[in-house]
Write a structure and sequence with these properties.
By secondary structure, the chain is of the alpha/beta class. The chain has 2 domains: 137 residues, Rossmann fold, CATH 3.40.50.720; 151 residues, Dihydrodipicolinate Reductase, domain 2, CATH 3.30.360.10. The strands form 2 sheets. It has an 8-stranded mixed sheet with strand order 8-9-10-7-11-12-13-14. Strands 3-2-1-4-5-6 form a 6-stranded parallel sheet, sandwiched between helices. It is globular and about 70 Å long.
């Protein structure tokens, strides 16, 4: 077993800096460096977390065991491929790539070299979601909303790849059935890409999911509701809170009762990174594999294609 896992972060914008912060606090992990083409940004983050600033990530090939890749989406594929070909495990922020062909290449190259790929679908590590999985049984209807104000991040892709893909991944992990139909709509508002979108997904087992994502809304919302035959579950990712509304029979008549679920709040990104490091150390399959990331990407691309037909 390795004494310390040597890691680095590639791309230290808003999210990449949080990766660096968490690595710098972890036991048995050494943050070897942070790399970013913006030299001032790299220097500031490196100084903040007592590590080395690099401006060319290729200098890390013989210095690390694993990396977080938090560069713009269009750069995920080439950067990840470089590290995989040097036998370095990668945590790639979502979406895994921009095309299925790129995702397949990463998966095949990683398998050939026994390299691990974890995809940063962070909501899988949310306390509320992990707890909710204990209660979900054969969902029939799912409704999700992921909305927020314009922040200028992730605008190199449509909101479907930027935000909605979180909920696509969650729903695919809950509904164990093939997608048979979708109908989507979306419009650009502040960028040249789709900024607000809605899609209806129908699965072979009869489950229907309705997803809305926006990066041009006034208020932030990250919620999902799951309806089953005898109950529905309401979850707020941001608040890390959950309630269950159950049907009971009382005096011969049905009524709904509410049950609040007590949760211990934790930082989902920390849980995600800790899970990645555990997989690296133990050589186990990551919680969110490249195949999971590929499937979420496949559905997201179908949604984009369908939405653009109606622009």
């Amino acid at each position: 077993m390795r004494d310390k896992i040597k890691v680095a972060v590639i791309g230290v914008g808003y999210l990449g800096e949080h990766h660096a912060r968490i690595y710098s606090l972890m036991d048995r992990v050494e943050l070897v460096g942070v790399a970013d083409i913006e030299t001032e940004r790299a220097g500031n983050v490196a100084a903040k977390y007592s590590t080395r600033a690099l401006y060319d990530y290729r200098e890390l090939f013989d210095k690390v065991d694993a990396v977080s890749i938090a560069v713009p989406t269009v750069r995920h594929y080439p950067v990840a491929l470089d590290f995989i070909r040097h036998h370095i495990d990668v945590l790639i922020e979502k979406p895994v790539t921009t095309t299925i062909e790129e995702a397949d290449t990463l998966i095949n190259e990683a398998a050939r070299r026994d390299v691990l790929i974890q995809v940063g679908h962070i909501e899988r590590f949310n306390t509320a979601f992990k707890k909710m999985c204990n209660y979900v049984q054969n969902p029939r209807f799912i409704e999700s909303h992921r909305m927020g104000p314009y922040v200028g991040r992730g605008i190199d892709v449509d909101v479907i790849l930027d935000l909605m893909i979180h909920d696509i991944d969650i729903i695919l992990s809950l509904v164990k059935s093939d997608l048979i139909e979708l109908r989507a709509a979306g419009v650009p508002v502040l960028t040249t890409h789709i900024d607000i979108a809605n899609v209806r997904l129908e699965f072979a087992n009869g489950c229907i999911a309705n997803l809305t994502a926006s990066r041009v809304s006034r208020e932030k919302m990250r919620k999902i509701r799951i309806f089953q035959s005898d109950a529905y579950i309401s979850l707020d990712y941001g608040q890390q809170s959950m309630a269950i509304y159950k049907r009971i029979i009382e005096n011969g008549a049905p009524r709904i009762i509410e049950e609040e679920i007590n949760l211990e709040k934790e930082e989902p990104l920390r849980a995600e990174i800790e899970s990645f490091i555990t997989a690296v150390r133990d050589r186990d399959k990551p919680v969110v594999s490249a195949i999971d990331g590929r499937e979420a990407l496949r559905i997201a691309l179908k949604i984009i294609e369908d939405a653009k037909k109606r622009l």
